[in-house]
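hey
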């Protein structure tokens, strides 16, 4: 365990040398594009600098009351610049590219945060955002006190796992459609964090899956994220979903219901969600 955590700290220690993680010139008025970026800025206690967020910034609840500049992948230069930001921080898929070029031509600083769907990637994201906002020391303190213990718990669980069971990550849509996360998705990264093997690495991205496809894939466990339902009353409704109700994993109650952004966003909450799912699948360490 000490070796694992030591490796994480060593990896984090080289971040300050990366150009994209250097302190911005002016972080007085910050626009954020991406739910995990917004969550992280709140986690760092720096929300007083936010002047705008994108439409995926739904956590924490207070973020919903901030001026909204549209979807992270479909920003407009006019919408962003009308809010007079001195700095724009976004996830790696923010865009479109020509809009980012328009913003940069106005001398508004723009920083894109790399995405790595792993525990280390989350720690790097927090450290990088803290550094960009001139709070590298505060970021290090929050990582040490709040996130490193969760990374340690994940590592402990991983040390006891001998065989990684097959699992599928399912997005349950309000219309009854089940979407499975394939290769190169945040769902695949989350399943790896929980020490399972993704049953749907045969395709890339997200795809709707039928009951037959799920039965053929035979996942031993399911991680289910309802998109349009309250987590407190979805278990029975999900067991009635045509695409999954006949699966042995559902009938044997080998599934975990998670919040979609908490599991797929790869912000600070994703670490604690991964610990909970890993413990549910493998048992506590």
């Amino acid at each position: 365990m000490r070796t694992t955590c030591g490796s994480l700290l060593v990896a984090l220690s080289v971040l300050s040398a990366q150009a994209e993680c250097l302190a911005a010139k002016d972080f007085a008025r910050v626009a954020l594009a991406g739910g995990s970026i917004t969550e992280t800025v709140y986690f760092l206690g720096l929300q007083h600098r936010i002047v705008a967020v994108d439409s995926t910034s739904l956590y924490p609840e207070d973020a919903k009351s901030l001026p909204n500049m549209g979807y992270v992948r479909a920003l407009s230069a006019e919408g962003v610049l009308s809010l007079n930001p001195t700095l724009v921080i976004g996830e790696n898929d923010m865009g479109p590219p020509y809009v980012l070029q328009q913003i940069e031509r106005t001398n508004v600083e723009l920083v894109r945060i790399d995405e790595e769907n792993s525990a280390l990637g989350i720690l790097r994201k927090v450290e990088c955002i803290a550094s960009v906002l001139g709070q590298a020391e505060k970021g290090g303190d929050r990582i040490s006190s709040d996130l490193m213990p969760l990374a340690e718990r994940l590592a402990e669980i991983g040390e006891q796992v001998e065989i990684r069971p097959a699992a599928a990550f399912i997005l349950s849509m309000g219309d009854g459609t089940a979407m499975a996360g394939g290769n190169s998705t945040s769902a695949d990264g989350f399943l790896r964090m929980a020490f399972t093997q993704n049953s749907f690495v045969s395709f890339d991205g997200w795809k709707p899956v039928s009951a037959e496809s799920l039965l053929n894939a035979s996942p031993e466990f399911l991680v289910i994220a309802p998109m349009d339902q309250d987590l407190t009353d979805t278990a029975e409704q999900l067991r009635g979903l045509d695409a999954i109700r006949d699966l042995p994993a559902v009938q044997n109650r080998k599934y975990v219901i998670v919040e979609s952004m908490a599991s797929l966003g790869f912000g600070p909450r994703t670490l604690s969600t991964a610990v909970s799912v890993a413990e549910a699948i493998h048992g506590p360490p």
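The mean pLDDT is 89. Strands lie at 30-33, 50-53, 87-91, 109-113, 166-172, 178-181, 197-198, 206-208, 221-226, 255-257.
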